[in-house]
């Protein structure tokens, strides 16, 4: 709205909303949805106009007094990287609970995650707690050093810890579902071989940590690999020239770090399908 002449001129969003509202066929399944995706930063000046769209009214009220309701097939998506400039009204309508990670940190999340192992496997819980201290993940200086390293894509502390816990959970679930591995662990427990069991869980933590913290590194991967090799004392990495920690996975049965190359299946030379569907397995595809 021009403040002097009071002349109204439609913007992009109002034009899109009006066109979608007029072209309103009977309600159909998901293929008939009409999407509006906003991928810019949320500016508090213009987002205020969308408050009535995002609440129960689902109506866009323009300064010209025109009201454009959202029809059932219409969908509005805010695809943004942060909510730093958003007002509390916008955040609440987006169904988001904002918690300042600088005040809370990732430790409460880690403690909450690790508490579930108290019932399932108290020994695993104690090892993961010890590993957290041993590998200095709880050390603020260590996390500061990680933030200063060169990453391919921006990451935050909470993102790293969530990746770490998720990888450990999947490795632990795989251990329980794989009969050969589970029988091996069961045998170690029957023999009260706590040292070997501790090595397995410690290796789980090392594997998950090195990918969660170092997976997104760029040219700093080499220094990170040397740092992680030196830190891993319980199950030592093989001393092979030119190999990074990312070149290995932990073999539960063997109880040692094994190169991904040993997992590469033999290439099927009898393949006679389309060339574009041909996949030659390598250590990278396996990992």
Q: How would you explain this protein's 3D organization?
A:
The protein is mainly α and 287 residues long. The chain folds into two domains: 12-93, Rossmann fold (3-Layer(aba) Sandwich); 102-263, Cyclin A, domain 1 (Orthogonal Bundle). 46% of the residues lie in helices and 8% in strands. The chain has 14 helices and six strands. The strands form three sheets. A two-stranded parallel ribbon has the order 1-4. A two-stranded antiparallel ribbon has the order 2-3. The protein has a two-stranded antiparallel ribbon with strand order 5-6. A hairpin with a 5-residue loop joins strand 2 and strand 3. Helix 8 (122-134) packs across helix 12 (194-214) and helix 10 crosses helix 12. The longest helix is centred in the middle third of the chain and has 21 residues, at 157-177.
CATH H-level homologous superfamily name of the largest domain: Dynein motor, AAA2 domain, small subdomain
Q: Please name the CATH architecture of the largest domain.
A: Orthogonal Bundle
- Read across the widest sheet, the strand sequence of neighbours is 1-4
Alpha carbon gap, first and last residue:
57 Å
Strand content: 5-15%
What do we call the CATH topology of the largest domain?
Cyclin A, domain 1
Helical element count? 14
CATH class division of the largest domain: Mainly Alpha
**What's the helix-strand series?**
HEHHEEEHHHHHHHHHHEEH
Helix content: 40-55%
């Amino acid at each position: 709205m021009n403040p002097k002449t009071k002349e109204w001129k439609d913007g992009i969003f109002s034009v899109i909303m009006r066109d979608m509202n007029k072209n309103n066929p009977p309600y159909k399944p998901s293929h008939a949805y009409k999407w509006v995706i906003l991928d810019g930063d949320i500016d508090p000046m213009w987002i205020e106009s969308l408050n009535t769209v995002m609440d129960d009214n689902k109506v866009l009220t323009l300064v010209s007094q025109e009201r454009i309701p959202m029809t059932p097939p219409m969908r509005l998506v805010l695809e943004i990287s942060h909510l730093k400039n958003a007002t509390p009204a916008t955040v609440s309508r987006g169904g988001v609970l904002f918690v300042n990670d600088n005040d809370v940190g990732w430790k409460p999340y880690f403690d909450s995650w690790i508490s579930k192992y108290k019932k399932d496997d108290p020994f695993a819980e104690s090892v993961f707690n010890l590993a957290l201290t041993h590998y200095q993940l709880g050390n603020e200086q260590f996390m500061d050093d990680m933030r200063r390293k060169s990453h391919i894509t921006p990451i935050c502390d909470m993102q790293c810890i969530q990746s770490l816990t998720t990888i450990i959970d999947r490795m632990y679930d795989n251990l329980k579902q794989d009969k050969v591995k589970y029988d091996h662990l069961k045998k170690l427990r029957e023999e009260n071989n706590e040292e070997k069991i501790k090595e397995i869980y410690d290796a789980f933590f090392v594997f998950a940590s090195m990918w969660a913290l170092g997976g997104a590194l760029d040219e700093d991967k080499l220094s990170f690999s040397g740092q992680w090799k030196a830190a891993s004392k319980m199950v030592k990495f093989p001393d092979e020239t030119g190999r990074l920690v990312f070149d290995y996975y932990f073999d539960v049965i063997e109880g040692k770090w094994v190169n991904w190359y040993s997992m590469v299946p033999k290439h099927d030379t009898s393949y006679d399908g389309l060339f574009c569907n041909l996949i030659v397995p390598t250590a990278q595809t396996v990992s």
